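Task: sequence design from structure.
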């Protein structure tokens, strides 16, 4: 089965062996049958070949051909002087459309510039980072999950509370306050420590 692009001109060639009659005594056509109608394209002879030039089929069939359409095709040769008729070739030809992309206008804006808008959707929420005192290490989510009592005491030292006794008092009060508020783990205790150390001194 041959394939043909219906938007382009195509030349079909046949290698033939002719005996008993001269090429100059023959005429012929390549014929296509579509929807019950036959269309013919004249051939010409060149040495031991027969050539037929097929015009763009979409021009002939007015765009009725679809990708994958099958056409019956054959080569007819005649010798009018001898009343000879030959049908040395017949086959099916498949229409193969080229890949294309089409676009069409779906709304007429009347010459007015269409309104432009940009919409954004939040895909993740960044949590506020609790930081220590100026020039201290920042508390990120991962570090908060692994905070230890030693980390809390280190924070108190950086905040200016360097006395061991006072550190223990602040830690005990923060632990009790965190328990009252339902905070769990060392993260809650750290939160109360930060709150206590930021209170203005009386």
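Answer:
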């Amino acid at each position: 089965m041959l394939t043909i692009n219906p938007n382009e001109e195509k030349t079909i060639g046949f290698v033939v062996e002719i005996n008993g009659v001269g090429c100059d005594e023959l005429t012929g056509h390549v014929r296509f049958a579509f929807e019950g109608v036959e269309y013919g394209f004249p051939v010409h002879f060149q040495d031991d070949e027969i050539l037929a030039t097929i015009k763009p089929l979409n021009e002939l069939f007015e765009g009725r051909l679809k990708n994958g359409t099958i056409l019956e095709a054959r080569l007819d040769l005649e010798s009018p002087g001898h009343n000879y008729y030959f049908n040395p070739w017949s086959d099916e030809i498949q229409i193969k459309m080229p890949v294309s992309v089409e676009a069409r206008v779906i709304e007429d804006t009347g010459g007015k510039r269409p309104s432009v808008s940009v919409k954004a959707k939040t895909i993740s929420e960044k949590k506020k980072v609790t930081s220590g005192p100026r020039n201290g290490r920042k508390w990120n989510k991962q570090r908060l999950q692994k905070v230890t009592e030693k980390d809390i005491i280190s924070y108190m030292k950086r905040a200016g509370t360097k006395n061991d006794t006072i550190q223990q008092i602040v830690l005990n009060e923060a632990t009790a306050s965190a328990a009252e508020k339902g905070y769990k783990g060392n993260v809650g205790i750290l939160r109360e420590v930060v709150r206590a150390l930021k209170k203005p001194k009386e």
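Residues 124-136 have pLDDT under 50 and may be disordered.
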